[in-house]
């Protein structure tokens, strides 16, 4: 099997603030193969966007990549080791900032951001911005760059591209502006496009059109995508494989069908249960209890234990190992949960949290207690 196009290993990005160190990305590992569409999914605050920015080395102060390796087609985009005394050492193989600008960004890896109005300059015409981007990254003249720009606007479904070339960003709808950014990303024929929640600000009809467009373009150009999103519905529609992130860590990775039909991690199960579905009433949705803890002071052990309905005392004590739990005949399926480790999960007592039902008599039922007296919670009050 050929080497992955992109490999991320033990990536750590931290933000150094007056309150303390925010561990936004904390030991992330994943791969993207040539022509593959890989999802990076999780709630807001999970670290998805910071991970994407770290790949391109676009993290701004007070953030810093402190550890890890990012390899793209054999090139070391990131190769940093954190020494015991807290210093960050860059290897000689790691590309310089100039090499990143001239060899990688735009040419080999492009990025599409969530809000096109933040990416397009409102005082310059759309065509001029697209043409300049092509000139910088493809080393062609102005007339040839304009021809390519018009062709790409047509390719992404902009009507009358010759006329719209001279329009300003505010003269385009939200969906059309997002198409312009996709055209800009594709114009330099990159091998990988990082799409950072590109459909979040769009209505569902336009979102569907953009997803259809991306699927079509991916097949036509064989471009790999890393699709960052919080929407499991989008993941189900377009992704080949999925990485689920929680509080700076990847907690599950699998092919999209396996993730939905053979879910391993309780957090992934909770995400799926909280999804609106056309065959279910709104009252039957099961939102994830509580809020995500702060990355400045993550919980001990498994970071999801404070919100996990299956959490036990052992989950507070042991940090789970991220490893493949699939059989030899199956596609790889990796998960970070102590249920799949020999650390005494089954023999451990359930945690008393809102997620486990401790505050509504649920913990008593889990333990098999008669009156729920051990929890100090009234047995019938929650139902009355």
Automatic annotation (TrEMBL):
Xref: CDD domains: ABC_NikE_OppD_transporters (cd03257)
Catalytic EC class: translocase
UniProt keyword GTP-binding, yes or no: no
Gene3D superfamilies: P-loop containing nucleotide triphosphate hydrolases
Main location: membrane
Localisation: Cell membrane
Catalytic activity entry: Ni(2+)(out) + ATP + H2O = Ni(2+)(in) + ADP + phosphate + H(+)
Region (Disordered): 355-384
Domain ABC transporter: 6-272
SUPFAM superfamilies noted in UniProt: P-loop containing nucleoside triphosphate hydrolases (SSF52540)
Compositionally biased tracts (Gly residues): 371-384
Keywords: ATP-binding, Cell membrane, Ion transport, Membrane, Nucleotide-binding, Translocase, Transport
Enzyme Commission number(s) from the entry: 7.2.2.11
PANTHER family (alphabetical): NICKEL ABC TRANSPORTER, ATP-BINDING PROTEIN, OLIGOPEPTIDE TRANSPORT ATP-BINDING PROTEIN APPD
Subunit organization: The complex is composed of two ATP-binding proteins (NikD and NikE), two transmembrane proteins (NikB and NikC) and a solute-binding protein (NikA).
Protein's UniProt name: Nickel import system ATP-binding protein NikD
Organism in which the protein naturally occurs: Halobaculum halobium
């Amino acid at each position: 099997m050929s080497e992955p196009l992109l490999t991320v290993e033990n990536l750590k990005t931290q933000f150094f603030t007056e309150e303390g160190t925010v561990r936004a990305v904390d030991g992330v590992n994943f791969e993207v193969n040539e022509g593959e569409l890989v999802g990076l999914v999780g709630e807001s605050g999970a670290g998805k966007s910071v991970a994407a920015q770290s790949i391109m080395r676009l993290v701004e102060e007070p953030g810093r990549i402190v550890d890890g390796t990012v390899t793209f087609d054999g090139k070391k985009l990131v190769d940093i080791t954190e020494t015991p005394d807290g210093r960050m050492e860059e290897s000689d193989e790691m590309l310089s900032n100039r090499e990143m600008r001239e060899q990688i960004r735009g040419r080999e890896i492009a990025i599409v951001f969530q809000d096109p109005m933040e990416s397009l300059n409102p005082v310059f015409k759309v065509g001029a911005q697209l043409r300049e981007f092509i000139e910088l990254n493809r080393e062609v003249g102005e007339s040839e760059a304009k021809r390519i720009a018009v062709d790409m606007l047509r390719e992404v479904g902009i009507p009358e591209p010759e006329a719209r070339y001279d329009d300003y960003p505010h003269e385009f709808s939200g969906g059309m502006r997002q198409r312009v950014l996709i055209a800009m990303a594709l114009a330099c024929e990159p091998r990988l496009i990082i799409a950072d929640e590109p459909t979040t600000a769009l209505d569902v009809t336009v979102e569907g059109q953009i997803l259809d467009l991306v699927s079509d373009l991916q097949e036509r150009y064989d471009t790999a995508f890393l699709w960052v999103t919080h929407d499991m519905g989008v993941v189900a529609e377009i992704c080949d494989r999925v990485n689920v992130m929680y509080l700076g860590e990847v907690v599950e990775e699998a092919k999209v069908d396996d993730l939905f039909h053979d879910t391993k991690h309780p957090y992934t199960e909770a995400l799926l249960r909280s999804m609106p579905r056309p065959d279910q009433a709104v009252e039957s949705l099961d939102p994830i209890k509580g809020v995500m803890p702060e990355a400045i002071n993550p919980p001990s052990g498994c970071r999801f234990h404070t919100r996990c309905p299956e959490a036990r005392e052992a989950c507070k004590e042991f940090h789970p190992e991220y490893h493949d739990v699939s059989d030899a005949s199956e596609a790889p399926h990796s998960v970070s949960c102590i249920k799949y480790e020999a650390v005494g999960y089954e023999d451990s007592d359930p945690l008393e949290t809102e997620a486990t039902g401790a505050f509504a008599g649920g913990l008593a039922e889990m333990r098999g207690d008669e009156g729920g007296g051990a929890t100090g919670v009234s047995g019938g009050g929650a139902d009355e």
